[in-house]
Amino acid sequence: MYAMRVFLRPLQGLKSRSSAFNPLSCSARCQSTQVSPPPDSVAQTLSVRHQIDARRRQSLIGGGQKRIDTQHKKGKLTARERIHVLVDPGSFVEYDAFVEHTCVNFGMENEKYPGDSVVTGHGQINGRTVYIFSQDFTVFGGSLSSIHAKKICKIMDQAILVGAPVIGLNDSGGARIQEGVDSLAGYADIFQRNVLASGVVPQISLIMGPCAGGAVYSPALTDFTFMVRDTSYLFITGPDVVKQVTGEVVTQEELGGAKTHTTVSGKLTKATQSLHINEYSDMFVSASEHSLVSRGVGVAHRAFDNDVDALLNVRSFFNFLPLSNTDAAPKRASVDPWERAVPSLDTVVPLQSTAAYNMLDVIGPIVDESDFFEIMPDYAKNIIVGFARMNGRTVGIVGNQPKVAAGCLDINASVKGARFVRFCDSFNIPLITFVDVPGFLPGTSQEYDGIIRHGAKILYAYAEATVPKITVITRKAYGGAYDVMSSKHLRGDINYAWPTAEVAVMGAKGAVAIIHRGSKDLAKAEADYVEAFGNPFPAANRGFIDDIIEPHTTRYRINRDLDLLQSKKSVNPWKKHGNIPL
Fold this sequence. Notes:
By secondary structure, this protein is α/β, with parallel strands linked by helices. Strands 10, 11, 12, 13, 14, 15, 16 and 17 form an 8-stranded mixed β-sheet that branches. A 7-stranded mixed β-sheet has the order 1-2-3-4-5-7-9, sandwiched between helices. It has a two-stranded parallel sheet with strand order 6-8.
């Protein structure tokens, strides 16, 4: 009993204490606290919501309606309008619409715009992901601030992370001077991303306004640069600075317009005007043709008439590209029969070996639906490069152009071809090469400007490439240029020759002049040389070409070979990187 009484005492005490506890009064107090928040809390929440809406609306109009109207009067779209034309409807997701510049000098703290001078984010083109930045000229002339650069770097970092291309719509006056070195640091941060992304994801630059100073190096580091005629400019220093420093008077268009950067410039030399290539290839090249083989700029890959034309062409171009270097070349359903014969190819090469023809008349009928997107069509016209499809699969096309300089390789053609080949190899795009080349262009101008070093670039590119490589020799394959143009010796996978093919060190006239120097009967010697080397048998006998094919079967054979080679595995020896002869 005693033990029981001792045990109950604490419970009795607890009961007496608990009787003072009123759960209803506590519940009432709690409900009162939840239902009646301080009046300032509601007002603050509504205020923040209104601010969000107001700032979002402000970010959508950039620098304001007056500046938008000015942009339209120049025939240009705004940054956001360009994005809406480029991507699929409703697919754009914007990043950092509320960020503002951080500059407090020169009164800049009193003029801020949500999103600053660039619109960034990701969207889709025909259902495929792409990251985009579009510079807004209505905000501080699209000038680059530190925040502007950070926005671009953020989407570039994410593009590398997820494996998606980057498209930059450039329309900027350059660095924001008020920010000083912060702006320069921003450019360097972007350049670093350009280099890290190179060969990982495709990078495309579309110049849609001015692009001056350090800003030009970002497009120069990307894979493809397109321009808009009459409204876009690329130059290190503008006309005013050029005049002050050198005394030269030049317009923006002359200094850095689309024509300057997509076509060749320079004057014909006296030696070039009188050049006859027939010593090597039995062909004469007129001075008018050689005006296309002089010194050039070649910074941009194509130019378009206006903003809408440029953006729609980039949409089409984008379809040829894989999303990253881990993807295979894109393939889509094709309505063009893969085994289709092409009868026109049987007569496209003239019977007279000195007559010119258009290599585009070979490429067009072979590829799917004659759809060929040519890269740099107005620059180094003696070589053709571009994208097409074979049985729905993206392929890179390279071909010598006999209509221009007899298809000779010169400095510009070598660089143009090399860069294209390396892009295709970086992104798993098979290469198809059509060869009609009488050699490298002779002359002091080419020698003095470094044809040896520049010519080695295309050699290096083909030798390094591990993607499927199919080569068709349509006519001439002379000298070192034969080796360079994806020959069997540079790990060409399948090498064909048409019956019109000639593989030799040089043309009959030049060869006979050396071999039979001083001989009285050069005509007979020349005929004998043609009989021995003016055909594909010397190369076929040695296994340097895999077959001599009828031209009309070319499409069928290439498609068959591409199917065979899609499982190709070729690996170069390990290295940090090669040392291409830059």
